[in-house]
Amino acid sequence: MSDSPPIQSDDLDTIRAACSTFPKQFKTLLLATTDADGKPNASYAPYLNVEGRFYIYISELAQHTQNIQASKRASILFIENEEMAEHPFV
Prior knowledge:
The chain is of the alpha+beta class. It has a domain at 28-77: Pnp Oxidase, Chain A (Roll), CATH 2.30.110.10. The protein has helices spanning 12-21, 63-71, and strands spanning 28-34, 40-50, 53-56, 75-77. It starts with 11 loop residues before the first helix and ends in a 13-residue tail after the last strand.
């Protein structure tokens, strides 16, 4: 993960740049979907980012694949390793 210090800026260009580069540290992403009944499913998957579009590699047998095919929706999350992160309440 990154050894860079946390962003201490209100400058939108700085924040946008950090948001653009942060995912490049990762080989996988966290994937959230829901089934037809609204039951949530969270998992992870390998991905590629090509020109700002995220492509995930998932099995057709996986629950998240079935959920995406049914709803055409998913959320993704990148999260810093807690060992590297500054504690938010200190």
